[in-house]
Amino acid sequence: MTELRSVLDEAQREGIISGEANERLLPFLIERGVTVGARAAKPVEDIAWSDTETPRFIRGFHDVLISIGVIVALSGLWGLASILSVLPAIVVLSEILVKRQRLALPAVVLTIALVCATTTLTAFCVSSGVNFLENGNDAIRFIAPFPVLLGLYYLRYRVPLSLALCIVSALALVLAVIIKLILSASGDPLLLVNNPSILSWIGIISAAGLFATALKFDLSDINRRTTRSDIAFWLHMAAAPALLYSIVSLFVLRGGLIELTQTVSFKTPVVVLTVAALMLVGLIIDRRAFVTSGLLSLGFALFGIFRQGSATIDTYFSTTLLVVGAIVLVIGTGWMPLRRRVVNALPSGLARRLPPA
Prior knowledge:
Layout: H1 2-13, H2 19-31, H3 44-48, H4 61-80, H5 83-100, H6 104-125, H7 136-143, H8 145-157, H9 160-186, H10 191-194, H11 196-219, H12 227-252, H13 267-285, H14 289-292, H15 295-306, H16 313-333, H17 335-344, H18 348-351
Helix pairs in contact: 1-2, 4-5, 4-6, 5-6, 6-8, 7-9, 8-9, 9-11, 9-12, 11-12, 12-13, 13-15, 15-16
């Protein structure tokens, strides 16, 4: 049944069948004993270079062209009318492009448009402005509409990005409530401003929760054939930078990343080691988001190291770009061989639960 469901989900993503047909076909085929036969074994060389992290939201230039049209049309409507006219337009376009035609990239664009429109409308409604650190009520009022709207959007259109953003916004809402409770219990509205390490630890715990949620979706579909993998992809895109910058903020929050470019201190190796650890995590779970999220911080740290020399500023900058680019190329071109080495070094029980290497 699981394999049959995967095949029908793939047919739905490709636009061959609709979502309604998908739901009706599954019990119909099961009642008649239809099964999915085993796939022919692939040559060893094909398995060695397979990629389980192939984005499924771009299927052709048709999707790109329609997405450009959506962006331009919504931008023009926003400029001529108001934000209140954009929200109905998003719904109408979603019914046509997502519900009926099952276009993947326009679904992503419309989800992002929904987030942008909601952000603008919510910011306008929160008349006092949003001060996340000093006024928890503002943050709660600002975030509260996102889980509801994105959850409803997912229930109607089944866009993986909308569910991922719904989960992220729900965790953000929980974080805002926690901060509100801390500020109320302390009686000091400037507690987090004066003690940034508290906020850093809260951020680390929240980012770890987001990563655990993404990993749960990921490990439930290690072959990455269903929409659970797509949801995990977007969750990892949010979890990777959240983990990195919440950890780094413990050490560089007061001085900022710019401080890393001025002098080499214990903060610099902390940043480098944190980025390296996340890159290793990315190799293990086969998610390149953990590599790309740390490139900016790694660049700042390397720039601080190179700046201790006697060369000109242009040399520091160019050397940093060269080193970061070389790291990206080495990891990118050798991703599968590197991952096989790392996964083979893990206990066999753990390796079997990971995407194939």
